[in-house]
Fold:
Amino acid sequence: MLDDLETTRLQSDTRHAEAYTRSRAERGYGPQRIAAELKARGSDTELIHRGLADFDTEWVARARQADRKKFGIHPDHSFAALAKRRRFLEYRGFTAEQINDALKIDSDLD
Structure:
């Protein structure tokens, strides 16, 4: 049954991984969280990496966008506020490097 669906291209693990990645990335989630969710859904590791690779150049911008949506355009830059912003972005699944770049760009604009 599944083989028939794959043959007729009605079911595709690759398409599912790509669509899920795109959907979650557009909602402000980072690559680590998306990869964990796909793994929990039984996706193949290679498919996960291929799907995430399509967004490699966008993760910092997406982290900055999630930060601004939650904390505003001109957030507080105190130590406690930066720690809170970092924890939020970590929870969303962004890497430390992506978070550093997103918050650095944000502080450079102020």
Observations:
- The mean pLDDT is 87.
- Residues 90 and 96 are 7 Å apart (CA to CA).
